[in-house]
Design brief:
Elements (H helix, E strand, L loop, with lengths): L1 H12 L10 E4 L3 H5 L6 E2 L2 E2 L3 E4 H10 L21 H4 L6 H15 L18 E8 L2 E9 L1 H12 L7 E5 L16 H6 L2 H15 L9 H11 L5 H7 L13 H16 L1
Parallel strand pairs: 1-4, 6-7
Antiparallel strand pairs: 2-3, 5-6
The structure holds iron/sulfur cluster (SF4).
The site of iron/sulfur cluster (SF4) has 9 residues, from loops.
Length: 273
């Protein structure tokens, strides 16, 4: 989304040829490297995101440059799209996207600026699938959250079997969500035996969320400006074109299982290098 908005809205507002913008995303996720090359994620034949670095790679680069990160003075983000809300922060934890969406849905359905915005039923890493019925005004919203692909499969089987009537489902591929993504800094096995890294990282995000003055996505001044000046309104034709995507079914990678293990191992060694 950021790449698409930079190469359309930002380029137009600043009279820059999108061909002269190079977008690098820093992500917790190794899969984003493949995702950035998807044909569906292009604007006028230009890739939304040109390159992806994982947080682990960025960490290594900071160390290689001999920067003492902890001693750097704190400062704000550049004001290109530097404003962010608590809702954006918690996206990194399982249940976070759901909670951020519920904060907006509740305001939209009630027409109020609600103060009670914490949906703790969808938080936590202990349960692989979390279900909740949330009362908003006179409506009950049924939601489900799954993290880890094994849990995602269980939840989707339930939907396929017609045993679920959720209004909204959140699925994150990694156990615990992006805080535990494949591109995140490694934590050694001994530490992991004593500390649930997923829970600790999620806790840090919820603490940051609590400290933010703006904790709802639709209250973010930048988001409001982008809709007012460029996208029109949520679900407009332009926002569908730029911010939504679609998928097509692909065949299973046609290799024997012993060959598959070798390829996976080689890819892991290459990414470490
Ligand atoms: S949950 Fe995992 S796979 Fe999904 S976006 Fe986050 S890091 Fe990537």
């Amino acid at each position: 989304m950021m790449g698409a908005v930079l190469k359309s809205y930002y380029a137009e507002m600043n009279d820059i040829d999108p061909k002269n913008i190079f977008v690098v995303s820093i992500m917790p996720c190794t899969s984003k490297k493949t995702e950035s090359a998807r044909e569906e994620l292009k604007v006028n034949d230009l890739r939304d995101v040109d390159a992806v670095l994982t947080t682990r790679e960025l960490g290594k680069m900071i160390k290689q440059a001999r920067l003492d990160f902890m001693k750097l003075p704190d400062e704000g983000f550049d004001q290109v799209f530097g404003e962010y809300t608590g809702a954006g922060v918690i996206f990194g934890a399982t249940g976070g996207v759901m909670e951020a969406a519920l904060r907006t849905v509740a305001d939209v359905l009630t027409g109020e600026d609600l103060e009670d915005i914490e949906y703790k039923d969808v938080r936590g890493v202990e349960e692989g699938i979390k279900e909740a019925a949330i009362t908003i005004g006179d409506k009950t919203i049924k939601v489900a959250v799954a993290h880890g692909t094994a849990n995602a499969a269980k939840l989707l089987d339930k939907v396929k079997a017609g045993e679920a009537d959720y209004h909204f489902i959140e699925i994150m591929g990694c156990s615990g969500g992006c805080v535990n993504g494949g591109g995140q800094p490694h934590v050694d096995a001994k530490t992991r035996m004593n500390i649930d890294v997923r829970a600790e990282r999620a806790k840090a995000l919820y603490e940051e969320d609590e400290l933010k003055t703006i904790r709802k996505s639709h209250k973010n001044p930048t988001i409001k400006r982008i809709y007012a000046e460029f996208l029109g309104k949520p679900n407009s034709h332009k926002s569908h074109e730029l911010l939504h995507t679609h998928y097509h079914k692909r065949e299973i990678y046609p290799i024997e299982s012993n060959e598959r293990s070798r390829v996976v191992e080689e890819a892991a060694v290459a990414s470490e290098k």
